[in-house]
Amino acid sequence: MAEYADVKRKKILQLLKRLTMIDGFSVNTGGKHQWTVRHTTWQRPFPIPFKQNRIKKYYVEDFAKLIIKTGACDEKTFKEWIM
Amino acid sequence: MVFINNMNNLSPLQYRIKVFIAGFKTKLPGGALINEASICYNQKLPKRVNVKWVRESDGFIVGHINVDGYEFTTQGQNAKDFIEMVNDSIYAVYEIPPQYISELGGYKRYFPKPHQLKELFDKSISKSDFGFYSNQKCPAS
Q1: Which chain A residue has the Cα nearest residue B73?
Q2: Cβ contact (<8 Å) for B88 and A20?
Q3: Which of A31, A43, A76, B46 has its CA 20 to 30 A from that of B83?
Q4: Residue ranges per domain, chain A?
Q5: Is B139 inside any structural domain?
Q6: Which domain holds residue B55?
Q7: What whole-number distance in Å separates Cα of residue A2 and Cα of residue A57?
């Protein structure tokens, strides 16, 4: 898995909007400060916080692994989406 | 439920306003929370969660949470914020409506043990793992 950098909240929102256009994905809000990304093959949704302005690289890496596992995109495409 | 399905409403600000209004409505006469729903949500939530965390150079803490085999991630700006975010992410994953959060123990429902809390606040420790235990009893009892 390649190295990722911190990503701004605005970029994550753009990524989420893109994901909703892909079959099987849905994005919602939950808790008090979270977006929740759901895929039909996942047991539970994956939370992404919008409380802070930046999403840390470890977080992006975990999210990328999950998205790539579903086959929605490959690593290169994911990187392009968050750039 | 305050969940927003419309894609145009993913704005954090709009969501916070909706949550605030929903919380305010519960305080009005006839707008009280349903006790049976509180009990159901309380039983739905896990008793224990395992958290592995890493502290970054800028003070941010990123945690990998494991609840009954399901893994997800959360982050906090500092130790206090991190505990709040662990709790908030669990409420989000278990789809608890925001107006029920304070009823179910708020952001102190899952809390580490004192020595683990000390580690979390100690800036010289860069990573560790521990279990967060629920300190909440059933609302009906």
Answers
A1: A59
A2: no
A3: A43
A4: 7-82
A5: no
A6: 34-134
A7: 11
Q: Are B74 and A49 in contact (CB under 8 A)?
A: yes
Instruction: Give CA–CA dist B3/A30, Å, rounded.
Output: 7
Range A7-82: architecture per CATH? 2-Layer Sandwich (3.30)
Cross-chain residue pair A62–B3, CB shorter than 8 Å: no
Question: Using CA atoms, how far apart are residues A34 and B12, in angstroms rounded to an integer?
Answer: 8
In a domain, B22, yes or no: no
ipTM: 0.88
Question: In Å, how far is A53's CA from the nearest CA of chain B?
Answer: 10
Chain B residue closest in CA terms to A29: B3
Element (H, E) at A14: helix A9-19
Q: Which stretch of DSSP H or E encloses residue A11?
A: helix A9-19
Q: How far is A68 from chain B (nearest CA, A)?
A: 15
Helices (H) and strands (E) in chain B, counts: 4, 5
Number of domains comprising chain B: 1
Residue of chain B minimizing CA distance to A31? B92
| 141 residues of chain B, pLDDT tens digit each | 444 444 557 788 888 888 888 877 777 776 777 888 888 998 889 888 899 999 988 889 999 999 988 899 999 999 999 999 999 999 999 999 888 888 888 888 888 888 888 888 888 888 888 777 776 665 544
Task: Assess B13–A contact: CB distance below 8 Å, yes or no.
Answer: no
